[in-house]
Amino acid sequence: xNAAPSLLEIAxxxxxxxxxxxxxxxxxxxxxxxxxxxxxxxxxxxxMTALSIMRLLPPGARASGRVTFDGIDILxxxxxxxxxxxxxxxxxxxxxxxxxxxxxxxxxxQVAEGIRWxxxxxxxxxxxLARRILDRVGLxxxxxxxxxxxxxxxxxxxQRVVIAIACALKPKLLIADEPTTALDVVLQxxxxxxxxxxxxxxxxxxxxxxxxxxxxxxxxxxxxxxxEGEVIEAGETARVLSEQRHSYTRQLAQASVHVPRRNPVVxxxxxxxPLLTVENVSRHYPGRRLSLLRxxxxxxxxxxVSFSMQPGRSVALVGRSGCGKSTLARMILALDxxxxxxxxxxxxxxxxxxxxxxxxxxxxxQVVFQDPYGSFDPRQKVEKLVTEPLHLLExxxxxxxxxxxxxxxxxxxxxxxxxxxxxxHEFxxxxxQRxxxxxxxxxxxxxxxxxxxxxxxxxxxxxxILDLFANLNARLGIAYLFITHxxxxxxxxxxxxxxxxxxxxVERGRTxxxxxxxxxxxxxxxxxxxxxxxxxxxxxxxxx
Amino acid sequence: MTLHTDIPEERLADLxxxxxxxxxxxxxxxxxxxxxxxxxxxxxxxxxxxxxLVIDDKQQAPSWAHWxxxxxFGRDIASMIIIGARNSIAVALVAVGIGMGIGVPLGxxxxxxxxxxxxxxxxxxxLVFAFPALLSAIMITxxxxxxxxxxxxxIGIFNIPVFARVARAGxxxxxxxxxxxxxxxxxxxxxxxxxxxxxxxxxxxxxxxxTIQFALGILAExxxxxxxxxxxxxxxxxxxxxxxxxxxxxxxxxxxxFPGTAIVVTVLGLNLLGDGISDLIDPxxxxxx
Lengths: 544, 289
What we know:
The complex is a heterodimer. Chain A contains 19 helices and 20 strands. By secondary structure, chain A is α/β, with parallel strands linked by helices. Chain A has a 6-stranded mixed β-sheet, sandwiched between helices. In chain A, helix 9 (247-256) crosses helix 15 (459-476) and helix 13 (399-412) crosses helix 14. The longest helix of chain A is centred in the middle third of the chain and has 18 residues, at 185-202. Chain A starts with 5 loop residues before the first strand and ends with a helix. Chain B is an all-alpha fold. Helices cover 73% and strands 0% of the residues of chain B. Chain B has helices at residues 12-21, 23-44, 77-113, 115-130, 133-144, 148-174, 178-185, 190-226, 238-246, 254-281, 283-287. In chain B, helix 5 (133-144) crosses helix 6. Chain B is elongated, with a radius of gyration of 22 Å. At the A-B interface, helix 11 and strand 16 of A face helix 7 and helix 8 of B.
């Protein structure tokens, strides 16, 4: 096992923040040229482990144990020593590319800053080096001069800049904390490939932190599984994941490939005609203003989309970020107006109607949003939040009736009536998503539009929420429009799939057929980029 | 001005605990409460009756009988300050009330409707802003006649754009949030959403601005009274007391020092309170937990 000496060695690392234990005796080591995965669910202490290595812990944190990097005892090093290490020998890539860059400085300045600081190089040399590393991470000079600002770049491009900053000085160790979680699958694939290439070129050690078992399995030589600050299992990736000796490892692996059992929906009343028809719908946004009178071409967020949905069926709308999925969803929910085209709900056109006329349609369609934190007014209690759609009923239910309905909705999503008096911040992410679903089903809609409903959740919670969706579909006959970039979700829970690319629907069909044999280029790119745990394990086994 | 309306993930108990730990909040609140208590006390009791002129006692230095001395008519300065507090607080409070009462709905309306209406409301605000507030207040009271009521109206008008701007900016930050979309999907109109979701979420922001405007209101009232356009005699006013003391600075400095101190302390208290509140809701301060 100990072929090469360890670059980073963590032994018995414990961490307390304000008296609360966060890490309990974590052991971990990374060797040069090796990728080590650190997997765990939110709150397991992954990020705190990373911050301990950089010694960037929040105030009030007390670490004990031993962290040695390249012969230096990190926990007792001086701040000056740490400053010399950070960004030079140890690089770090953060999760959120939107906030990891300084918005008022150019990308060139930001990459060159670290180079100048650590090497004392002059402006010209450091900028030349910055240029080289930006070229290397796939941001060529013609399209991405050093003078670009972060807001001019997309999420994937920004993450490349962050990687360029981290890797500019060829660090011995790179720590990547959920580097692709905020990106769609195609960008995720590109960023992962880039990281892998950099590891091989520079013989870097890479500590890859992720909640996504499939990603880690593909990338890592060895994996460490963390739960509530404790190492549950550690070892060669192929062995740990093929044998799945520990029950928690098994649980995680099963949750990541979980497919809910779906009973065919009993459509009670034979409803005539489709539930929802979208006919040649477009949404254009005015282009950038070029001068006082001239504007750029309008941006076609949604461009001539047509489809229809039958009652009780589940349809996935998949595509990369920025392809127009969410804009389309908003128009279906009558929260935004199409530039042209028509949307009909149960035969009635809904675009351009007044709120009063929309009431009947709104009663039948509800929405579940992606962000379980942003989708509730933090100042209201659950009772008020969950009963919000009751506003749509013709006769106002009494307070007691509202309470009863809210309690029932909560029970249907696996929460209890005693939660009615709580505020949203008292719930975990998964529970909040349940609340969100309770709010959507309280008035028994026929259609629920769910915009990335599980992508912010941990795998085990995600599996349970998917079960809940499947269960409600079977019991209440609710049709779903699932908007997602995650194909495992689409596969798990939908009958049909629509693949969207640059505002158009480029492929449609039965979910399994499309995902097994994608014909359009956009669909193929999505399918190929999607990480798949079983495939990754099989490949790791072969490599051995 | 920081416009972080992202306050809430906090239990009331936590907030109260942090409030007590914040020095500026506690000091500010203590001063403001004390001034208010003194003003209320004046309805029941003052050391001396200030409507009675005792010429024999005029311009006496502070003593055990008259803590802050007496003025040129022999009235007790401590009593006048106590009654003057009533006047200052009433003027500032009503002026803030006018500003909030008109400004906040305007700001919310502008944020909710957007487009031309937003543009119109905000440009009108700019117009009011463009006039120096105190000068215009002097103009208004000069036209409509001096007096406490006109002073209140004049100060109140200049509070409207301040609150309209803060309310609009706060509301604009809330509108794109997902819970507003959810409320719209539940068929709620803009008025209802503003009442149920926007206002509670910008309330703390408005509170901070309220304390600042309150302090400015007290200063403005003192300024107007100083030039004789505020409350009229015999109603005592801190501003006029200063004016009357001006020519007697050399012979009776206490006539200026104590009303001046009253203004400074009250304004300081309100500013500390405002600082304290904004510290409590500052997300950066919260992150250090």
